Amino acid sequence: MVMEASTRTNLLDLDLKGMEALAVELGAKPFHGRNLLKWIHKHGVTDFEQMSDLPRSLREQLESRYEVAPPEIVFEQPAFDGTTKWVLELRDGQRIETVYIPDGDRSTICVSSQVGCALDCSFCSTAQQGFNRNLSAGEIIGQVWQATRELGRPPTNVVMMGMGEPLANYDAVVTAMDLMMEDLAYMISKTRVTLSTSGIVPALLRLREHTDVSLAVSLHAPDNALRDQLVPINRKYPLEELIPACKSYLEGEKRRKITWEYVMLDGVNDSISHAKALIRLLQGVPSKVNLIPFNPFPGTGYRSSPADRIDAFRERLMRAGIITITRKTRGEDIDAACGQLVGRVRDRSRRQLRSSDANAKV
Ligand code: SAH
């Protein structure tokens, strides 16, 4: 169902500066903008009437022309391991997916940055739906807003690893990440906000000017010939540009490392000679390697490397002094694992029951 576009301005699109400026524009003080931000993000309040420390005239103006409009959760799918996939519907009826991954004291939210993706990585299911549009800052932070309401507290970690390429939607992603880290909003530390990119080099260089969130890079191959096949953006920004850009991202940050994501594809990129080439490539770059067992999806020609080959690959990197972990596959039974956010639910005609209101009629 396509909803009518709202003519109101969505306050979720504004960062702290934007909120202060709005307050001033509406005849109030910058600190009223700060309070407004706090009401919306920290307390989850969307009704301006309840924002008791805002002047009445400000509340009235907000009431008439503004709104707090997070994407709506229309589908919730819990997995056996506690991972939960939320399908969120945007104002224009498009749908995106957000995944919640609990792990002891840690709660990670995997956030989408675009509807679909234009980058066409050959092993990624999001690529199959093609690119639809960028998300607004409000639609990105709206996923964290919803997750915080669902969990009753902000997540401890956010990874920009859902659908889409975050650096292809630079401004909105940066605004949303600022809000994640903002004390008046979610207060997540910069080491716990991770942006994952396939390597859009100019945007990566620009990112460092503005923020220093943790960086994960989808490497997947140790040489250009193979990476050109797996991650086609490599043809535009090859390894000899990507690696120095990543190195420069770490400048001035003594203890930080780049996390390299490396999907393990049977017979494609998983041999010992690939491991050796990877070791050479990463020489001199503070690195952590995340080996991701390939998550198959219908229609793919790839298979995951067998466990013993993943172990051997990992051993080889560890022996060279590179911290390497094999990523646990989470939420596999609900298509919430890496690269599986394919939006299949679009075809369902009926809303599914949320587990929390299993007895309710939809
Ligand atoms: N566009 C961003 C975020 C993508 S999702 C990026 O490219 O980094 C996060 C990770 O999952 C990426 O490393 C991506 O390459 C990987 N991935 C995609 N499809 C996968 C699949 N089917 N199995 C395992 N990992 C996959």
Note the total helix count: 11
Describe the main β-sheet briefly. Answer: 10 strands, mixed
CATH superfamily of the largest domain: Aldolase class I
* Topology, number of strands: 14
Bin the helical content. 25-40%
* Lateral arrangement of strands in the main beta sheet: 3-4-5-6-9-10-11-12-13-14
Could you name the ranges where pLDDT drops below 50 across 5 or more consecutive residues?
Answer: 345-362
Shape: elongated
SS-based structural class? Answer: alpha/beta
Say which molecules are bound, naming each kind only once.
Answer: S-adenosyl-L-homocysteine
Integer tally of domains = 2
- Averaging pLDDT over every residue, what do you get? 91
For the termini, the CA-CA separation is 15 Å
What is the H/E order? EHHHEEEEEEHEHEHEHEHHEHEHE
CATH class of the largest domain: Alpha Beta
* CATH architectural grouping of the largest domain: Alpha-Beta Barrel
Radius of gyration, CA atoms, in whole angstroms: 21 Å
Describe the structure.
With 362 residues, the chain is α/β, with parallel strands linked by helices. It folds into 2 domains: 10-67, DNA polymerase, domain 1, CATH 1.10.150; 72-334, Alpha-Beta Barrel (TIM Barrel), CATH 3.20.20. Helices cover 32% and strands 19% of the residues. It has helices spanning 16-25, 30-42, 56-65, 125-128, 137-151, 170-181, 201-210, 224-230, 239-249, 272-281, 307-319; strands spanning 9-10, 66-67, 72-78, 84-89, 95-103, 106-110, 114-116, 131-134, 157-160, 193-197, 214-218, 258-264, 287-293, 323-326. It has a 10-stranded mixed beta sheet. It has a two-stranded parallel ribbon with strand order 1-2. α11 links the parallel β13 and β14. Bound molecules: S-adenosyl-L-homocysteine. Residues 121, 123-125, 161, 165, 196-198, 218, 261, 263, 292, 294-295, 338-339 line the site of S-adenosyl-L-homocysteine.
